[in-house]
UniProtKB/TrEMBL annotation:
Its EC number is 2.4.-.-. Pfam families: PMT_2. Residues 80-233 form the Glycosyltransferase RgtA/B/C/D-like domain. It comes from Ruthenibacterium intestinale. It comes from the Bacteria. This is Glycosyltransferase family 39 protein. InterPro entries: RgtA/B/C-like. Keywords: Glycosyltransferase, Membrane, Transferase, Transmembrane, Transmembrane helix. It is an enzyme of class 2 (transferase). One of its GO terms (molecular function) is glycosyltransferase activity.
Length: 276
């Protein structure tokens, strides 16, 4: 990296690929070390533990969860994803699901970092993108959040992937390629928002950029394509979750804030009384 800065050259081709691979490889090694050293038990005293253990219990023994997901329906999609993942592991003969979950969790973080590098490269060039990727070492959550297999990490690739597809779409000439990329951006944002609704902020950002950057009929067509694709997938996924054959996954009528105490803390006794 120092040589790149000293000579003021743009790393291209094989050198660039090697530098990116070394950085991401270094990230992954550290993430795996911290993930296994700091591994936590998925106890039913916090959201990560509740979702993880409930998914594992159903995948391995067919026991449905209590009504936690009817009160906190926003975590039902993550539960369904984990159930599918654990079912696949079970079919492969894997019973101890935590190691595989930690590996996949760190891969989600690294996938997001790779996409971030691609976005920075498209916007600012290879040299700036490499320094940006190296600078990610300064953000400790990228290194230390591996033990928590939850929506915060699993959804990381979705908003950045949507942004990457949008940046690719806006540079292409009119045609099917551009619109397919716009649709892909909307679909990625929708899948991420289904797991964690704040991912929808990425859709708002790219739609505004389409209207301001492209402008006119071109901007409206691209923005409309992204919004429609987002609405189609998000609506379909939400409909499927809301009409799940498992009543325990359907949203209840109670106030989601009912489990919070006066100080904002989670009232564990109430949750235990509700059979969670």
């Amino acid at each position: 990296m120092a040589a790149v800065e000293k000579h003021g050259v743009q790393p291209e081709g094989r050198l660039e690929a090697v530098l990116v691979a070394v950085l991401l490889g270094g990230y992954w090694v550290l993430q795996l070390v911290f993930a296994f050293v700091l591994e936590v038990q998925p106890t039913r005293t916090w959201d990560f533990g509740l979702v993880f253990s409930a998914a594992q219990q159903y995948a391995q023994s067919g026991v449905l969860p209590g009504d936690y997901f009817s009160q906190f329906h926003n975590n039902a999609p993550m539960y369904l994803v984990l159930v599918a993942f654990f079912k696949v592991l079970g079919a492969l003969g894997v019973q101890d699901v935590m190691p595989a979950a930690l590996v996949c969790n760190t891969l989600c973080v690294n996938g997001a970092l790779l996409l971030l590098y691609r976005v920075l490269r498209r916007l600012y060039g290879a040299k700036s993108a490499l320094f940006g990727l190296a600078g990610a070492f300064l953000f400790l959550p990228f290194l230390l959040y591996g033990p928590i297999v939850y929506t915060d990490t699993v959804t990381l690739p979705f908003p950045i992937g949507a942004l990457a597809l949008w940046l690719s779409a806006r540079e292409r000439p009119a045609g099917a390629g551009r619109m397919l990329r716009c649709a892909g951006a909307g679909l990625l944002a929708a899948a991420g928002a289904w797991l964690k609704i704040t991912v929808a902020i990425a859709l708002i950002a790219v739609v505004l950029d389409a209207l301001l950057y492209a402008g006119g009929r071109r901007g409206w067509k691209m923005a409309g394509c992204m919004v429609l694709s987002f609405a189609a997938l998000y609506g379909a996924l939400s409909f499927a979750a809301l009409h799940s054959p498992w009543p325990c996954l359907r949203p209840g009528k109670g106030d989601p804030l009912a489990a919070l105490g006066d100080d904002g803390a989670f009232r564990r006794r109430r949750v235990q009384r509700r059979g969670l």
